[in-house]
Amino acid sequence: MESQLVPLDVVGVRIELPSKQPVVVLRGAEPGLENLHVAVLVGPAEANAIAMAMEKKVPPRPMTHDLLSEVITRLGSGVRSVEIGMLDASTYRGTIILGNGRSFDARASDAIAVAVRVQCLVTMDRQMLTRVGITPRTAATGQRPISEDEIKEFRRFLDSAEPEDFE
Where is the BFN domain (predicted)? Predict the structure, then answer.
């Protein structure tokens, strides 16, 4: 079956508790997918780079992602989109797709940092989004919050999952 890429919104950077691990939260942007969220674990530097770009803060000197975005733009190609996919059962990968159709493999966090800067489309395969996306339980939906035990159980699953578990 041919893959169908769907748009994602970059919701923001959050800190996962109790580990204090930064995560970038992505959300389906199409009707019917807007309740599906994907949390991508990122490093502190990448989290800061994404958050700064989302807040439209400009550092006194360009950060690495600013430089990369500027170089791509000045070379005339520009960034058409960024695709987020799975590298393995628990690691996301990014692909930066240029205006000329060429693509470059990247860490998901770096690809998202570039996408936020150049304000391009962020996408994921529809089937993958429906497999890995979660629907947060909130008071607004009348459901109870996700417990720490449920989060730990989900992490154990991700740690032991094989690629076939996501097919």
Answer: 5-136
